[in-house]
Design goal:
Blueprint lengths: L53 E8 L8 E9 L5 H6 L2 E8 L6 H4 L3 E9 L7 E6 L5 E12 L5 E7 L3 E2 L2 E2 L4 E6 L7 H15 L7 H5 L3 E2 L16 H4 L10
The chain binds 2-acetamido-2-deoxy-beta-D-glucopyranose (4 copies).
One 2-acetamido-2-deoxy-beta-D-glucopyranose binds next to helix 2.
Keywords: Signal
Length: 251
């Protein structure tokens, strides 16, 4: 899931989800690495190639802009290569989809918005690091990278990601992001979530580089209200691939 162009932001009313915990990680099997853009960690193991593919939900985020997007889905699939060079790039199709906040107008509330881009592995920075590039009408690029990944105590996979500030229409924005992404719209199971928060705080609690301390302490749950429960995975037609609706948005 990528940083999306800023829409009207709601006031930051939500409490930090990880307040009041101590530096005492309960699950020693969660290995949160430093973002390779800040400090390499050769002992960290990336997931297998295909592990990231399929349907996910960003369920916690440090970026307020995401809190105005409801029922967010993230779909990652391998790009079918047509040349030898493309095959070597191993690019991933990256589709984010969401609703706007509910208005009570059923027609408007059913609209699913999409944001389509390509992920290109960036092994020169580190393993499980991707150059994200919005396609066509969406002129946004940044790097995202996994900090941790695994299976929660309920058997659902999750990962923790870090994003560098995106360049939008050639202008560098200020926001780094940490997010927790899960196969389950409710997010990782409670014991695993507690362990992730604890481990993030213990690893980054006093770390000024890359805004890590600030981000780790400001993870908010994203909104899910069941509007997309019956049709969670969107089709991506030509208008979607072109990010056509974004062309009309103010930046
Ligand atoms: C975060 O970790 C620090 C130690 O790095 C600890 O002193 C503090 O209590 C923890 N804070 C929270 C909110 O868990
Ligand atoms: C409901 O939303 C649709 C789609 O945005 C719009 O065309 C319609 O006028 C709205 N209806 C009312 C009663 O506001
Ligand atoms: C990602 O790759 C594209 C194409 O090479 C490049 O234009 C863009 O600047 C890269 N993004 C970042 C954040 O470096
Ligand atoms: C939608 O699905 C989620 C996850 O399975 C569930 O927790 C939630 O209750 C469902 N909501 C509705 C309105 O069906």
């Amino acid at each position: 899931m990528k940083y999306l162009a800023a829409f009207a932001l709601w006031p930051a009313l939500l409490l930090a989800a990880n307040s009041g915990r101590s530096c005492n990680p309960r699950h020693s099997n969660i290995h949160v690495r430093y973002p390779p853009t800040v400090q390499p960690d050769p002992s960290w193991k990336a997931p297998p190639y295909a592990w990231l593919f399929g349907h996910w939900h960003p369920t916690y985020t440090s970026f307020e802009g995401y809190l105005n997007l409801w029922n967010i889905g993230a779909d990652l699939y391998p790009r079918w290569p047509t040349t030898h060079q493309e095959a070597e790039l191993r690019q991933t199709l990256d589709l984010t989809s969401y609703n706007m906040p509910p208005t009570g107008n059923a027609t408007a509330d059913a609209v699913v918005y999409t944001a389509f881009g390509l992920d290109t592995p960036a092994p020169e920075i580190g393993s499980a690091v991707f150059n994200f590039s919005g396609q066509n009408s969406w002129h946004l690029t940044n790097y995202y990278m996994l900090l941790a990944w695994g299976e929660d105590t309920a058997g659902d996979d999750y990962w923790v990601q870090y994003e560098t500030p995106p360049e939008i229409d050639g202008v560098l924005t200020p926001d780094y992001v940490i997010a927790i992404v899960s196969r389950n719209p409710n997010g990782p199971s409670r014991p695993t979530l507690d362990a992730i928060f604890d481990t993030l705080n213990c690893t980054f609690g006093n770390e000024p580089r890359g805004q890590l301390s600030k981000l780790a302490k400001n993870l908010h749950p994203t909104h899910f209200d069941g509007r997309r429960n019956q049709s969670d995975i969107p089709a991506c037609d030509e208008a979607c691939v072109q990010n056509a609706w974004m062309a009309a948005q103010p930046h």
